[in-house]
Amino acid sequence: MAKSAKKGSLKAALSSHQARLKKKQDAAHAAQHADRAKAASAAQGKGKAKAAAASSAPPTVPFQPTDRILLIGEGNFSFARALVSSPPPSLEFLPPSNVTATAYDTEEECCSKYPEAVEIIAELRAKGVQVLFGVDATKLERCPPLKGKKYDRIVWNFPHAGKGITDQDRNILSNQLLILGFLRSAAPLLVSGPTPIIHKARKPKRDPGDDSGDDAGPDEEKMDDVPQRPRGTILITLRNVPPYTLWNLPKLAKNPPPPTSSGQKPNPKYTQLRSFVFHRQFWTGYEHRMTKGERAHGQGKTGEGGEDRTWEFCLQDLD
């Protein structure tokens, strides 16, 4: 009887001890869950604040009113029109005659693909913009009106080989060769001078607990004026999602592959100055149009879900 009582007492004690341990564990788990929820809420709040700050930041305008600008692969010329007909306030005094807008197509092909281009081209010419057709971005030296010219900005928005290749690896290679050819062809047309200086605007003091880094956002950057005219830059805009990210644009510019044949000239090396979000809606009336073969192919739906981003490069100093 005593043994039975002792056994029952021990069982009750163990059961009571386990119950106390379970309560402690439940309390600890609840505290950990509360801490994680609090941390997640704080992170979400910071993320929303950063997103709001980014969305409220003014779009980057990579031009000065004194720039001489060469636009490549203009399609329907709506970006050229936005630049000279509805410019942002900082470009109000940009002379239209400082802008040269080019297209790969002949004028007849261009107006056939993009009926709206007829009116746009007439408007640009009336304002004094130089409009050129049949300009191959990889053979700019073969365009007589460009011979001897120098530009502060050479711009290609959404370059694409437009060959309709379905195999992704071959498609990527086709577009990489296009970009390399353009970077090689455009180099002699860039203004010489000192390397441009990109200034990062001051950011408000961060919360001491914010360990997300202190780099200024890309839309907070601006190019400083320097006493001597800085060297010209190339601006290339792409969707910042696959398959475009697979082209590896920054690497192509900074570390191009060696020539594949003895007669081919090596590609010049560029320095990346910055990259920033490209806001299509900021450029009034601008429409990005894709092409496949001989017909217009819509308004650039490939790569939806990402952002448009512009990379800006200048030539590296020669060793």
TrEMBL record:
GO terms for cellular component: cytoplasm. Pfam families: BMT5-like. It comes from the Eukaryota. Residues 1-60, 198-231, 250-269 are annotated as: Disordered. InterPro entries: BMT5-like. Residues 210-223 have a biased composition (Acidic residues). Residues 24-38 have a biased composition (Basic and acidic residues). One of its GO terms (molecular function) is rRNA (uridine-N3-)-methyltransferase activity. Residues 39-57 have a biased composition (Low complexity). GO terms for biological process: rRNA base methylation. Residues 70-289 form the 25S rRNA (uridine-N(3))-methyltransferase BMT5-like domain. Coiled coil: none annotated. This is 25S rRNA (uridine-N(3))-methyltransferase BMT5-like domain-containing protein. It comes from Lentinus brumalis.
